[in-house]
Amino acid sequence: MSFYQTWLPFIYLYGIGGVSFLFGTFLIFRTGALNVNDPVHKKWVWVLFYGYFFYAFIHALFIYLAIESV
Amino acid sequence: MENILGTNLDRIVILAYFAIVMGFGAYFGKYSKTTSDYFFGGRRFAWWLITISIVATGIGSHSFVKYSTKAYQYGFSSTMTYMNDWFFMPLFLFGWLPIIYYLRLGSIPEYFERRFSREARYIATFMILMYMIGYIAIQFLTLATALYKIYGIPLMLTVILIAIATTIYMHFGGQTSVIFTDLIQGFILIFAGLLLFYLGLNFLVDNTSYSSGLKALWENLSPAEKLPLANFNSPPDFNFVGIFWQDGIAGSIGFLFLNQGLIMRFMAARSVNEGRKAAAFNVLVILPVSAIVVSNAGWIGKAIANSIPGALPVDLAPNDVFVSVANLITSPGVFGFIIAALCAALMSTSDTLVNASSSVIINDIYRPLTKNKASDEEQLKLARLASVLVKIIAVCLVPFFNSFDSIYEAHGWFHSTFTPPLVVGVFLGIFWRRFTSAAVIATFVVGAFLMILGQMYPSLVSPFSHGIEFRPGRGYSYIGALYNLVVCAGVGVIVTLFTKPNPNKNLTGLTVFDVHKLKNIFKGSDVNELTGKPVIVNYKIKDLKEDMVSFSEDDMKIANANKGDLVYIQDSRWWLGGLKSIHATYDTPHKESGIVYISQKQCDSGMFIDGLPLKSEKEM
Predict the structure, then answer these.
(1) How far apart are CA B617 and CA B285, in angstroms?
(2) pLDDT, position B502
(3) What pLDDT is recorded for position B3?
(4) Which of B69, B173, B199, B474 measures 20 to 30 Å from B455, CA to CA?
(5) pLDDT at residue B61, rounded to an integer
(6) Which of B249, B283, B513 comes nearest A51 by C-beta?
(7) Within chain B, which residues score under 50 in pLDDT?
(8) Coil, strand, or helix at residue B340?
(9) Is B227 within 8 Å of A25 when comparing Cβ atoms?
């Protein structure tokens, strides 16, 4: 399987998607919409980053397992 | 007409399902007394109730067929579109959701008027209505295509019967009926999809030498079919980069920021934080499960085709894989149940869109035209009529969508036509203060014109193609979304730079830059952020000023509440999910601990039962 099938889509997804995610996180932090001094909001910061890495992990795992099964 | 699918038992199961859902939905009609109840369910529900009802909205009747087809052709990468929605969650949860909730927006077009101008609102209303009614028509068409083969009734008559069935409970119940029928339909959808997966794995164990169904499935897919993401830029009808821009970017923003049905669901949550929990849980847990639910028939079908020759027809068309696999691995009655799940998918998606469309008709056409002079009863009556009208128009549109080569082509056509200008308009409106009214109208009008040019002259799209092969006569399918987004955003940015914002326009609370002020705007005074504890109380009736309730001094201390703070009071039985609840304001306290004084009107609105305790929580 070629790079076009395996890791390029992953890098593109979490690269472009990651820029969107970080831009959004920065904007809500910068504008005060997300207040890290608020304990409830603080938990949400963890949830937001957990979600990003959760999906990245699932996708990476399946790509790895698919490559291993060749 | 030839009956080609199912048995009489299957037909009885499907009819029984329709009858049960209609009765269930009509029962909850008693909870809709005002337009607020009808459209937003009174803003009172717990996050878990909202979450499950969103499942049924997100899975349309076309989902099972569409994703099973892709799963059969390409394997696990069929799940891509269900697992790329997290990137815009920060902006949605902490930008858009507080804006729509705290400003009590009745609809997305209303935002366009408050943020830009009345003209922008009217254009947005037209585009959103077209989008939603077209979507409803496609849902009708998809299910009717399956059902008319089972019952032998002509296609259009099947469409009309489905429209009538969904009207019955929608007409009386509004959003509360939608939420509660979608709750059971959400469970049914997930259960039916997972049941199909379980039966499919068992079928593989029974008919192969593997002792584990999961192992049999894994071993009978090729390495490429095990990949979770499609090939980067080929084939042209299913490639990663095109689907990323169409679904992961335009689709995700459209789904989270512009889906009026979904927005109304979040506004039915009892608080912004409950809405956030519902959205996060939906994307993190429910969507991956939904991906399995809608795709597994295709994976099972492919594994069966690879390991059990002759079990499925050699010339099986990918579009038929869902029905063929369901027929093969289920017994009579169970097949009817699986088709009933398709019905659940249709009814739950279309009822949400119908309710959303009637909300737009009332909020964005009727109220502005009548200058909001009609009484709430009159508006409620009209909302019910509007929902019937929407269905009639949708039924009339079915032949138009039936004229496309496939349902997916029809679906893709209006998705790519109506979503990008709205996505750009709302996104720049929220996150760029400088974005002007002239610019948003230019985005809608000039952007749409450039999009049409792109469809007529595919060479305009080719610089964005990422190497995807051009198909003569069919153009660039998915990656066209990138071109559409770029031209709409380009028009918006350029016109903004050459026009001046209206100096008299008050944008307070309408952009992400003011989200931290929204609680104060919502409450109308300073917010009390001190954390308190919930209080269990019994209620007594007393004449009080509107929306006021009176707690004891001791109970207000426990809640850390002051006079004028907002309070949420609900039946203490958690499993009602806030169905019986009210929002109110703390009045001057009294001395009787464990007692709350409420008015008869509040008691009726919350449907509180005499003798059953209430649970109260300070909101802000």
Answers:
(1) 28
(2) 76
(3) 46
(4) B69
(5) 60
(6) B283
(7) 1-3
(8) helix
(9) no
Domain at B8-407, CATH homologous superfamily? Sodium/glucose cotransporter (1.20.1730.10)
In eight-state DSSP terms, residue B581 is E
Quickly name the fold that domain B530-618 has.
Answer: Barwin-like endoglucanases (2.40.40)
- Which residues of A lie inside 8 Å of B (Cβ-Cβ)? 1, 4-6, 8-10, 12-13, 16-18, 20-21, 24-25, 27-28, 31-35, 38, 40-41, 44, 47-48, 51-52, 54-55, 58-59, 62-63, 65-67, 69-70
Q: By residue range, what is the domain housing residue A40?
A: 7-68
Q: Does a structural domain hold residue A39?
A: yes
pLDDT of residue B172: 60
Q: Is residue A1 part of a domain?
A: no
φ, ψ of residue B346 to 5 degrees: the values are: -65, -50
Which residues, in sequence order, are CB contacts of B383 under 8 Å at separation 6+?
B35, B38, B39, B174, B358, B359, B361, B362
Q: What is the rounded distance in angstroms from the CA atom of residue B270 to the CA atom of residue B89?
A: 20
> Does ipTM come in above 0.85?
yes
Contact yes or no for B566/B102 (Cβ under 8 A): no
Taking only residues 517 to 576 of chain B, the set having a beta carbon closer than 8 angstroms to any beta carbon of chain A reads: 529
- Please tell me the predicted confidence (pLDDT) of residue B414: 67
All residues at 6 or more sequence positions from B156 whose CB lies less than 8 Å from its CB, including other chains: B144, B395, B398, B399
